[in-house]
Amino acid sequence: MKTHLLNLPNQQLLEVVTVGEPHSTALVFHHGALGSSENMAPLFHEAEARGIFAIGITRPGYSGSTRREGRRTSDYFLETRAAIDHFHVESFVSLGWSSGSPAAISDTQDSRCKGAVTISGDAPRVSSDWQTYIEKYPSINGDASSFEWPSFDDFRKCSSEEIVDLFGAALSKGDVEVCRSGASEELTFAIHRGMAPGDFGALDDFESDAAPWGIDLAQVSQPVAIFQGDEDRMCTPAHGHFLADHLANAHFYLEIGEGHISLMYNKSREIIDKAIEFLKLP
Predict the structure, then answer these.
(1) Segment 244-247 long-range contacts (CB within 8 Å, at least 24 positions apart)
(2) How far apart are CA 178 and CA 198, in angstroms?
(3) Could you read off the pLDDT of 242-263 as tens digits, one per residue?
(4) Of the candidates 38, 85, 102, 245, which lies 20 to 30 Å from 155 by C-alpha distance?
(5) What is the residue-wise DSSP string for 145-192?
(6) What is the pTM of this model?
(7) Which pLDDT tens digit goes with each residue over 215-251?
């Protein structure tokens, strides 16, 4: 992976992480909360193995990206547009994991975006019918709603051996297995990098996630693939079902036995396959 710092207007720096040689087509990755582009490691590995140019967007406030106070889902595409312009990309597909999924959908506002892929992704939780989805589509093994989250400092200081205990009841059985088989090192590295400048990246994510998106999902014309684990305790199946029902051109994949983290690791090949399918659309 190569790390770049791009100069944006208003003295803003944007950190992007790339694999492969710059090309006219690309995959764009948006990481989850409490981390950095490195927590998309399995997708970077898959893209690199196929010779695909991939760009990881580090959201403002994390790692080397300057905070952009008040950022919202409706304007997340601005950072992507800057990166796409910098590398002279003519068409791309945007992929987002967890809190990065709203950013992937935001990117559909750019005419060069051929489609989007959400992975264990957030839905707009302030919609009038959101509660009906929570009631209708619970995780089959409980959720993290009553879980008392550790402090940001706890995450910043944790070791890879401690990450499973730190997330505790928020992890499914599949998540724990994936973490203990090697993912914990990549996730911990991403957390340490992302949270190094302070708390604002995570705080701005949480504020944005809880606010209206400012995007009419029914008006998104590009195809959007939604990968959702039925054992996800953080973004429960309600999120995936909501997006599938409200997006105009949704491809919904409910993955049995997968949790919030295990889905991206165990299904990285299928996820990249779908992104490439969208990238090849006329």
Answers:
(1) 246/127, 246/217, 246/218, 247/105, 247/217, 247/218, 247/220
(2) 28
(3) 999 999 999 999 999 999 999 9
(4) 102
(5) TT--PPPHHHHHH--TTTHHHHHGGGS-HHHHHHIIIIIHHHHHHHHH
(6) 0.96
(7) 999 999 999 999 999 999 999 999 999 999 999 999 9
Task: Provide the token pair at 56.
Answer: 């990881």
Please name the amino acid found at residue 173: K
Residues found in the chain: 282
Question: Sheet harboring 224-229: ordered strands across?
Answer: 2-8, 12-19, 54-57, 25-30, 91-97, 113-119, 224-229, 250-255
First to last CA, the chain: 29
Q: Show the tokens assigned to 20.
A: 């492969």
Count Cβ atoms within 10 A of the Cβ of residue 254 and give its class: 0-12 exposed, 13-18 middle, 19 or more buried: middle
Residue % of the chain over a pLDDT of 90: 93
What's the rounded Cα separation, in Å, for the pair 208 and 203? Answer: 9
Give the pLDDT score at 149: 86
CA-wise closest residue to 105 among 255, 215, 232, 235: 215
Contact predicate 31/101, CB 8 Å: no
CA torsion through residues 65, 71, 73, 76, sign? negative
Residue type, 243: L
Q: What angle do CA 260, 265, 270 make, to 5 degrees?
A: 105
